[in-house]
Design goal:
Length: 695
């Protein structure tokens, strides 16, 4: 049975390869009858050939191969062909160093999926392939909507989607990654004032649909970074205010706030708010801030969520509001409750899948050993996957002329046996009358492959929307890393891509820290380091001896992964909590022996690793606070009626980030299990209140 299935896939690969060649060379649209009679491999019979062709057509379009449908005179009615200008990638004129820079960017920035690697393969880059398994520099969340949205931005195409309960029709001006999430920025034609809006892509209610191309002009002076320059209290769970995602109405009078954030979160907060908010660094490492905000209620929510790390100094009336809120949180009665007793019995109860979204404080953790993850069997490559790879291999062979089979297999991540089968099959493909001069000219001699006269297949194919997005975001993310050369090969390669394919108007924002450079240097040299670090619940920094494994951007922040000798295990440290880095002059001892599950866990985009010693807390919270906890829950969010949700969250730091999370969620959130955590929010409020009562 397995042999029959393998043979069927090989037959289909041959047929689809022949179909691409025939439709590319067609000077006029070909009817289904002509295709079935001239393309080798189609079954006999009108209905059987139609079904096979429809299946192949869907597969080719899924690969981004544009089969056009045109009207024919006579009984056939419809004809098909591939227009070369739609199939081939325009000439980019990338030099080898620029191709190499793009290859490295795709390897260094993990988005999930193979779109980035497929894009590089399509270019036929001849430079050295980055070594597989190298630690990434950035891990970013990926969503199915991002590729089409990126294409809409480039094409100036109207995009339609559901958002917050109604249909939107938006002129997309740009895409950006900021505050752990992807945002689309554009003019909402369905809004009463048609004003500029920001839409979180992970909150789209359905897949975006692209409409008319070149349907609008970008406003003069549009600045994407400025358009998404919003502050964390503008991302709360309440309906958005004047400068939130759904800004409408009149702005209240702004308030100037003076506050101090201690060394535990000072660098994180300054990095989030921007250097313009910083008045001074205090000797203790605390930051004194001056902030102007028109959104007082949400600002208070945000300050409360910082717990005892922050204190509002002025104005007095706002300070008093914070104190009253903390007093209410301390005084609110709490008791442990059986989770089963509060579940809504309605059949409408449903589970909401989680994603990588987190709120500001989620993931500001001292990480722990990763939980094991179930490994699924690797699916066998389909005929479409093999064709996609084969076309990329032929582009590469056309550029180099010949290559060793083993080198080709390593470059395209395929076994030598499967590669040999596909190349032997390709050598039998061509166009009618299938004479030697009309077949793909490949010579396979032991471990050597020689290509001559590949004609149409020697030119790279156009990128799919997903491939174009993956390539652009990898370049943008790497250029956003502090110290990147904005005039180097990667920058020039990106400029050439955008000059030919259209401006991507794409931004990736990541933070920085004085400790970043020394930690990255330690990873590169494999040197053990000693760090002074503020744990999530610590009031003083602790000294850790760490064998660094990787320094990676996750959710817009830098994290150090390494072996902590004090904990005798793998830990994750948020870089902006590292107060000092001291090289030891000794080689790192333990990072070379990480297990495969550990390495796999370290490649995920989420900042939280999980912890073997963590307990699972069950909390109830208002439905509108859903987005504050989605990235933390283990089994989804359960609607329990009366506008409430139930969530289960792993907790290994009850007195640190979990307490602050409960403060951020407000008085309507409560822990119902385990009993030891029922008062975690009140304890956090009590610690914060003590800071205000010290005077």
């Amino acid at each position: 049975m397995q042999q029959v299935a393998t043979a069927a896939r090989a037959d289909r690969l041959e047929r689809m390869t022949n179909l691409v060649l025939v439709l590319l060379e067609a000077s006029r649209p070909l009817s289904l009858r002509e295709i079935a009679s001239t393309v080798v491999g189609y079954p006999q019979g009108k209905e059987a050939s139609r079904q096979a062709f429809e299946r192949d057509k869907r597969a080719l379009r899924a690969l981004g191969i544009p089969i056009s449908v045109e009207t024919l005179a006579g009984e056939d009615q419809l004809g098909y062909r591939i227009h070369p200008e739609d199939y081939y990638l325009p000439e980019l004129r990338l030099d080898p160093d620029e191709e190499q820079a793009l290859s490295f960017a795709v390897a260094a920035v993990q988005l999930g999926g193979a779109a980035g690697r497929d894009a590089v393969a399509k270019l036929g880059a001849t430079g050295e392939v980055p070594e597989p398994g190298l630690p990434p520099i950035a891990v970013l969340p990926s969503l199915p909507a991002l590729g089409p949205l990126h294409q809409a931005v480039r094409d100036r195409a109207i995009v339609r989607f559901g958002y917050r309960g109604r249909r939107r029709e938006v002129e997309p001006y740009g895409l950006t990654f900021k505050f752990t999430a992807w945002y689309l920025v554009g003019r909402d034609r369905t809004a009463p004032d048609e004003a500029l809006r920001r839409f979180r892509v992970d909150r789209f209610e359905d897949a975006p649909v692209l409409g008319e191309l070149e349907a609008f002009e970008l406003p003069a002076g549009f600045d994407l970074p400025e358009a998404v320059r919003f502050l964390p209290w503008q991302l709360g769970s309440r309906p958005a205010g004047p400068r939130g995602e759904e800004a409408e109405g009149c702005e209240p009078a702004p308030v100037e706030v003076t506050m101090v954030v201690d060394a535990r979160l000072a660098r994180s907060v300054v990095g989030t708010l921007g250097a313009g908010s910083l008045q001074a660094w205090e000797p203790s490492g605390a930051a004194r801030l001056r902030i102007v905000t028109p959104e007082q209620s949400r600002f208070v929510d945000w300050v409360i969520g910082l717990g005892d790390t922050a204190e509002v100094l002025a104005p007095p009336d706002l300070r008093a509001v914070v104190v009253r809120r903390l007093e209410d949180l301390v005084a609110r009665p709490r008791r442990a409750t059986d989770p089963a007793s509060i579940r809504h019995s309605s059949p409408g109860t449903r589970s909401v899948p989680t994603d990588a979204t987190t709120q500001l404080e989620a993931g500001i953790l001292d990480g722990h050993a990763p939980a094991p993850k179930r490994t699924l069997p690797t699916p066998q490559a389909t005929a479409g996957d093999r064709l996609n790879r084969l076309l990329a291999i032929l582009v590469y062979l056309a550029r180099v002329g010949e290559a060793r089979l083993t080198d080709l297999a390593a470059r395209f991540s395929v076994s030598s046996t499967e590669l040999l089968h596909d190349l032997e099959l390709a050598a039998c493909c061509g166009v009618p009358p299938y004479t030697p001069d009309q077949l793909i000219d490949l010579l396979i001699d032991e471990d050597r492959v020689v290509a001559e006269g590949l004609r149409e297949l020697a030119h790279p194919r156009r990128f799919t929307p997903e491939e174009g997005f993956a390539l652009a975001v990898a370049a943008r993310a790497l250029l956003a890393v502090p110290g990147a050369d904005d005039e180097g090969d990667l920058a020039s390669a990106l400029a050439k891509l955008e000059a030919v394919l259209g401006s991507s108007r794409l931004a990736v924002e990541v933070d920085s820290s004085p400790s970043l450079g020394p930690l990255r240097a330690a990873v590169a040299s494999g040197e053990q380091v000693e760090i002074d670090y503020f744990g999530a619940s610590a009031t003083e920094p602790s000294t850790r001896l760490v064998d660094p494994y990787q320094v990676v951007v996750r959710e817009g922040k830098w994290y150090l992964d390494g072996w902590c000798h004090r904990a005798n295990g793998l830990r994750r440290f948020q870089v902006d909590r590292v107060q000092a880095v001291r090289p030891t002059g000794r080689r790192a001892e333990n990072v070379g022996s990480l297990s495969e599950p550990e390495r796999e866990a370290l490649s995920r985009p989420e900042a939280f690793l999980g912890a073997s010693e963590a307990v699972v807390a069950t909390i109830v919270l208002p439905s509108e606070a859903r987005f504050a906890v989605e990235g933390l829950v283990t089994d989804g969010l359960e609607e329990i009626g009366e506008g409430r949700l139930m969530a289960t969250i792993p907790v290994s730091d009850a007195e640190g980030w979990f307490g602050r999370l409960l403060l951020l969620l407000g008085p309507e959130a409560e822990v119902i299990d385990p009993p030891a955590l029922v008062d975690a929010g009140a304890r956090a409020a009590r610690r914060a209140l003590a800071r205000y009562n010290q005077q």
